[in-house]
Predict the 3D structure of the following.
Amino acid sequence: QVQLVESGGGLVQAGGSLRLSCTFSGRAFSLYDMAWFRQAPGKERDFVARVVSGGRIYYGDSVKGRFTISRDNAKNTIYLQMNSLKPEDTDVYYCNAVSTLVTISPGPYWGQGTQVTVSS
């Protein structure tokens, strides 16, 4: 069984920075594609960024050039460095894990979310 725990959210002024972390508990972390999504109340969950098991990285259009996703396979952790934050980045951020390379517990799995609030 996989568990994901996010941390690092908080309140920041527009233009500021935050770094989110997501710690993966389970086996074979390096075989999972890891991603960040975000969701506002009453809205759909939106894709933010993904780093796949092989290392390729993808970003949603709204965060390109401002956010950076990374993974540390030795620590079973992914990060989301968020710079030049805008009030519209205010959301609950969720960590996601899914694998096409494992047959046991492939997911998808979700963390409990961490709140990011950007004040204008």
Q: What stands out?
A: Residues 41 and 91 are 8 Å apart (CA to CA).
